[in-house]
Amino acid sequence: MDLIEIEKKIAPEIFDILDIRYNILRNIYYNQPIGRRGLSNKINIGERTIRTEVNILKKQGLLNVESVGMYVTEEGKRVIENLEDIIRELRGISELEKRLKRVLNIENIIIVPGNSDKNGLVLKDMGKTTSMYLRKIIQDNFIIGITGGTTMAKIAEEVPANKVADNILVIPARGGLGKDVETQSNSIAAKLAKKLQGSYKLLHVPDNIDRETLEAVLKITDIKEVIELIDKMNILIFGIGRADTMAERRQLPEKQKKRMIEKGAVGEAFGHYFDIEGNDIYESLTVGINLKAYNSIDTIIGVAGGENKSEAIMAVASLRNDITIITDEAAARKIIKIVDKATE
């Protein structure tokens, strides 16, 4: 039995306190300056408890409390960093990763503590974790493709701004989807390239268009060039969506959405809709990477979190066993529950 397990047995309340104070420190750090009331609302802990814990953390030199709000000190930042691995062990994340790898039959999985459905900082942590993993595997002359969406935008935001390799090219793996410019694949690809001190090319075309328009735009030189580069990608980073949510975003006809869901579609990635076993139920007429190109890319990283994405993650994980899935604790535990229930 290791030290953490022994401490859990002898004084389990210590870890509850540690978890609360870690949560307070982290939330202040990501939202500073912030007042006690704002912090109380953000993490759903009473103001009296917040006041007590903040006073303790201040006495320990981890916080500064000023008229404009609270700040984490340099010592506080170091404590947050050092606690990350301890919190993982306290919550059994390492064991959870091993079990989920077996359940999904994939080679690599990274789990972030928490639930991104309920806590925006968990999404930020997934972005940070993905960016760290990405930086480790990038090599000179790599072509990196990235899709759009909130999660992908968070990854680009969390990537440190420094060079890791020479002659990096970042491209959008899909056309644009939705009205929010910041979560468009073009914007994300450009931001990621600048952070990595590489270059980028853009795909100036909507993600879902009619066949006649698609055939016309594919003849445009700039667009044709990016489409050809998609087939040469070394790394693909993509978000995993729920089938019903993505069908809504793509404004698929009601009849088509109903038929697709009736056939068991639960997950979506790069315009394809899959059932929980990874069978391709439906493909949108979209611009960018397709299933054939996906299967030929050397390194693929799928990122999604929250309990509501659990079945979607299972669907996409079924496509290739050499995928890396980066998710959160809530999605991981829900997947295991689904599998356990199915095998009862």
Structure description:
With about 350 residues, the protein is of the alpha/beta class. The protein folds into 2 domains: about 5-90, Winged helix-like DNA-binding domain superfamily/Winged helix DNA-binding domain (Arc Repressor Mutant, subunit A), CATH 1.10.10; about 95-340, Rossmann fold. The chain contains 16 helices and 13 strands. The protein has helices spanning about 5-10, 10-30, 35-45, 45-60, 75-90, 95-105, 120-135, 150-160, 185-195, 210-215, 220-230, 245-250, 255-260, 290-295, 310-315, 330-340; strands at about 65, 70, 110, 145, 170, 200, 235-240, 240, 265-270, 270-275, 280-285, 300-305, 325-330. The strands form 3 sheets. It has a 7-stranded parallel sheet with strand order 3-13-12-7-4-5-6. Strand 1 (about 65) and strand 2 (about 70) form a beta hairpin. Helix 15 (about 310-315) packs across helix 16. The chain is globular.
Number of strands: 13
Structural class: alpha/beta
Shape: globular
The H-and-E topology, N to C, reads as: HHHHEEHHEHEHEHEHHEEHHEEEHEHEH
Number of domains: 2
CATH topology of the largest domain: Rossmann fold
| Major sheet characteristics | 7 strands, parallel
CATH architecture of the largest domain: 3-Layer(aba) Sandwich
Q: For this structure, what is the CATH class of the largest domain?
A: Alpha Beta
List the uncertain runs. none
Mean pLDDT over the full residue set: 88
Strand content: 15-25%
| Widest sheet: strand ordering | 3-13-12-7-4-5-6
